[in-house]
What does this fold into?
Amino acid sequence: MKTFVKHILKVVLMLVLSAYVLEFFYTNIFEKSLPRTKFQNLRALKNQSIDYVFLGSSRVENGVSPKVIKDKIGKNAINLGFQASKMADIYLIFQLLDEYNIKYKKVFIQVDYIFNIEKGFSNVLSYEVLPFINENKLLTNHCQFNDSINFWRNKNLPFYRYSITSQKIGMREIVMNLLKKQTAISVNKGFDPLFGSFSGGKYALPETISNKNKYYDLIANYSLKNKKDVTFFTAPFRILNNDFSFINKLKTKIPNLNDFSNQLPSNKYFQNNSHLNHNGAIAFTNVLIEKLKL
It folds into this structure.
């Protein structure tokens, strides 16, 4: 019996030690390798300076090209739009710019129907920040907000967060990091172009607008307190009945909103109703350069 118990204890000890070793190995790879994800791109800008930062959802990620800005006016920009981002995600990234001591001249924040959404978050961002859950309080708090059920285990149990999200931050991603396989998002400074022609149909913006969004208020207050140069804008939609009444309501909540919602009224610029294709992104980035006087 004693031999059996000793064997079991040895197995448990080996499993615990293996978990700590794997935890250290995975986290070290994500911290030190060349950026592959949007969030790794952000961290790679620590203590650096950049001209323009663009924040928002996939409508920014797929719609604003830093290369066009660089080629046309010689300014450096980074696209930090994340798929399915809500205002809470944008507020996190906005604060992380200071947390990582990233200097910038202006930040441009895309707002649309996400003004109506206070609860919710980007699943893409939640996976990408998970390896760095213990890096600072902002990330720790965000991980707790996103997944309160697994939060304690993600934060404190070695290798737990990697084991339950292996399809996103598991062995394949570790191998790609070790092989220095950069993604298109990394190469394009956060821009992820869409290709193909318009495939939209019936599409409508919300009929009503929320009275307020606390994360918009937090962003506005943070920018005022810290003297940040922030510009809010709305990217183009392709709405066949041209009903943009929601955007008019949004302007009453954000009086300084730059409205580009109907700036490109042609199917040729869109991949679907709310996302520009590659040609549309180039055209829209040129619109931003001109209209926002970049």
About this structure: The chain has a mean pLDDT of 94. Residues 61 and 191 are 5 Å apart (CA to CA).
